[in-house]
Specification:
single chain; 114 residues; mainly alpha; two-stranded parallel sheet; 7% strand; globular
């Protein structure tokens, strides 16, 4: 886990944006130490923010667990969020419309679930 935190830090320093999806799973026992290791990397990146060209984005679908990882005062990553976007659920009809717009004319499959 320590190597992963260091790799994320190196990638961010190298100008890459690292995205960790379903980040809430790092709150589970087998991976719990990762947040403490990542904390050290995030702190070093923050200290060098003027020259760091990349960054780290964490995403998660379970709001309560994400809050526990990032907003709880006892969590290693507490107070280290620079920006947050909270998205609500999409309705099925909205998803169908998005897919239609993206795939207009590129598929032979019917996209009407109704």
């Amino acid at each position: 886990m320590g190597d992963l935190a260091k790799l994320i830090e190196a990638l961010a320093r190298g100008g890459f944006i690292v995205v960790l999806d379903e980040f809430q799973y790092f709150n589970r026992k087998p991976h719990a130490e990762f947040c403490s290791l990542l904390q050290a990397s995030v702190d070093r990146l923050t200290a060098d923010a003027a020259v760091v060209k990349g960054g780290l984005i964490v995403l998660g679908s379970i709001h309560t667990e994400m809050a526990a990882l990032l907003e709880d005062r006892s969590a290693p990553l507490y107070n280290r969020i620079t920006n947050a976007i909270e998205l609500t659920h999409l309705e099925v009809g909205s998803v169908v419309e998005i897919v239609r717009e993206q795939d207009a004319g590129t598929t032979s499959l019917p996209l009407d679930p109704f």
